Structure formats: structure tokens, C-alpha cells
Amino acid sequence: MTRDPAFFIPVFVLLCALALVQVFSVDVWLADFLYGLEGGHWALRGAWLTSEVLHKDAQKFSILIGVVTLGVIIASCFSSRLRPYRRGLIATLVAALTSLLLVSLSKHQLPLACPWDMQRYGGDLAGHAIFNFYWGQDVGGCFPAGHAAGGYCLLIWFFFARHYQLPHYRLALLPGVVIGLTYDITQELRGAHFLSHDLAAILLCWTVGYLVFRLIMGDLNFTHSATR
């Protein structure tokens, strides 16, 4: 088991955050607040900025990042400057795709409701228990948050930058944090997700991405020191 604090500490913090969100009903409190703020309905659910730009178009942007990464991997076959980074680039892409795949499989297999599905927020499902499983009903696609995962899967670039000891490697966290937060705030404003859905997406992307990256790089059991 890894002893890397850069991996373990965020996992511990996220698990604690998920527990606190459930104990203090933060999911319901936040959804109630946003629902009331929008006038007792999800006014931003179909709005141009949140629905078209920050949801549909943003999905294309996430795909573009993957295509560009693949292009750099291909270019590394011909560039002596990029060749030393090829394995890390492959590991990063595979780790991100694995995270997204697991998020997608989970959200489509678990019959958990989105806020907009519940009667409390204008939907058809009775109750407001966040982790109530609606087996046998046409509900799903909500947990973990798939759209936010499209941003948070970019957090894996931190481990790439650290592995190769790039200058200011901690800044590699910024794209994943900024894009992930933008995506999850957008979806919460639309009534598509609770806060816990987004926390679960971060936790899954961080954990799975890290483990897959280190497995491919062949140093899964390393300590906190990074090696080239």
C-alpha cells in the first residue's frame, strides 16, 4: 500500500468531507438553498450558459484534451525531446480514461436520484434520502458526477509533472481543480447533482488515476520522493 502523503492526505480529507456532508445533511441544505435561490425551480437547468456552454460544449472540450494528449503521445514517437516522457504520457491518458470509465459505469448502474428527480425539488420521486436506491425504476446517471469527473480526471497531470520533476509541478493541479469545480458548480446549479456526487467523483478520479498511473510507471509502492 502506498505511503505517499500526496495521495493519502487528499483521500483522507475527501472521505472525511463525504462523511460530514452526510452527517450534517449538507447535500439537502445546499440543494434547498440553490432551489430557493432560483425561485423554487431549476431556472438554470436549460439556460444557455449552463446547459449549452458549460455542459454540452464543455464535454467536447474534455474530449479535445484527450485527443491532444494522444497527439502528443504519437508525436513522441518521432521527437527525441518528447520521447523521454512517452511512458508518462501514456500512463496519464490511460489513468484519466480509466477514471472516467469507472465513473460512467458506476453512475449508470447505481439507481440513485438527482435533485431534479425528487418531489422536494419538482421531480416525481418521493423522499429526499440522498443514498436511497430506486431499484426497478427509471432513475440513474447521477452518482458519481460524470460531468465533474471530466475536469477532475485532469488532476492526474500533477503526478505526471511530479514524476518528471517539472518546475513548479504543483501548478499542474490547477487545470483539474478549476475545470472540475466549474463543471460541478454548473451541474449543482442545474439540479443535476448533490455535493456528495461531486466529492465522490473527485475521490474516484484521484484514487483510480493515481493507482493506474503508478501501476503503468512501475512504481506503485514508492514513497513520497519522486523519481525520474
TrEMBL record:
This is Phosphatase PAP2 family protein. The keyword Manganese does not apply. InterPro entries: PAP2/HPO, PAP2/HPO_sf. The keyword Transmembrane helix applies. Pfam families: PAP2 (PF01569). It comes from the Bacteria. The chain crosses the membrane at residues 61-82, 89-106, 143-161, 168-186, 192-213. Residues 90-216 form the Phosphatidic acid phosphatase type 2/haloperoxidase domain. Keywords: Membrane, Transmembrane, Transmembrane helix.
